[in-house]
Structure to design on (283 residues):
């Protein structure tokens, strides 16, 4: 049985993967999927794909496209979440900053360079007509690092997925000042060129099992309660998030690839656009 090492963030988006593993759905189809958590997010997963630590990543679209253009030997094999990611812009609960415009010229906490929190700080700044050359960053590795950095005023704001961070808003660790949705499908599934070349059949089987799970995921009985309990989120927040979230069983479109590349180029986060064929594999 072929083993596929998959990396992803420890967030509610990825429950379908865990259910497929726990229910032996992958194994029954002939593939052994091993899951590895990456609390640090996209930058850490890009590094793990490059080193061969993982074969597959469930990863932010803009982050992996940027890294593939910059030499990561991987390709997108499918869209995972077709809806946008809602990035919350957070400050420390005791911060003097009352609204998002107050944050112009301050320092953003980011998990690492090339991460979603890094790239979206540029998207947010452009959206608000801030000077992109004056953006300043503090690398904090993960959510715990962000809490510490904002509390100590080492950074003044932090962008992270709205619903993942909501419990920290509810307990007055953070205060939410605004949201910034991605203008494209937020999560894709990327695989290393090596695994695509050597194990395309197993990857295909893995996707078939996963897609069967995600097709009906939202209408499973008590799925909202399970999500709420597993991820320590209020039931009302989970229901709101489920309403906004669409899982995909399709490859990413040329239009979405074009839009992400154009945005990255405009923000000077890539030096050139590449042909879409360099970014995707249809196995």
């Amino acid at each position: 049985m072929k083993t596929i090492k998959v990396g992803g963030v420890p967030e509610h988006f990825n429950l379908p993967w865990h259910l497929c593993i726990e229910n032996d759905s992958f194994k029954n189809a002939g593939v052994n999927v091993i899951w590895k958590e990456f609390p640090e997010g996209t930058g850490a997963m890009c590094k793990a794909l490059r080193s061969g630590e993982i074969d597959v990543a469930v990863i932010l679209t803009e982050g992996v496209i940027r890294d593939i253009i910059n030499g990561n030997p991987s390709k997108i094999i499918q869209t995972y979440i077709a809806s946008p990611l809602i990035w919350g812009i957070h400050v420390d609960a005791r911060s003097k900053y009352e609204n998002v415009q107050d944050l112009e010229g301050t320092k953003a906490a980011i998990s690492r360079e090339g991460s979603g929190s890094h790239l979206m700080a540029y998207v947010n700044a452009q959206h608000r007509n801030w000077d992109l050359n004056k953006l300043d960053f503090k690398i904090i590795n993960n959510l715990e690092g962000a809490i510490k950095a904002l509390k100590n005023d080492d950074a003044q704001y932090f962008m992270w997925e709205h619903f993942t961070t909501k419990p920290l808003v509810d307990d007055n660790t953070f205060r939410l000042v605004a949201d910034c949705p991605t203008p494209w499908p937020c999560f894709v599934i990327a695989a290393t060129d090596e695994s695509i070349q050597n194990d395309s059949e197993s990857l295909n089987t893995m996707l078939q099992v996963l897609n069967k799970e995600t097709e009906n995921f939202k209408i499973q009985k008590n799925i909202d309660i399970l999500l709420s309990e597993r991820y320590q989120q209020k039931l009302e927040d989970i229901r709101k998030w489920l309403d906004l979230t669409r899982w995909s069983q399709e490859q990413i479109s040329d239009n979405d690839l074009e839009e992400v590349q154009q945005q990255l180029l405009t923000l000077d986060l890539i030096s050139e656009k590449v042909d879409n064929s360099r970014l995707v594999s249809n196995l």
Remarks:
- The chain has a mean pLDDT of 96.
- The chain has two domains: 2-84+184-278, 86-181.
- The beta strands are 2-8, 31-37, 56-60, 74-81, 86-92, 107-110, 136-139, 157-161, 174-181, 187-192.
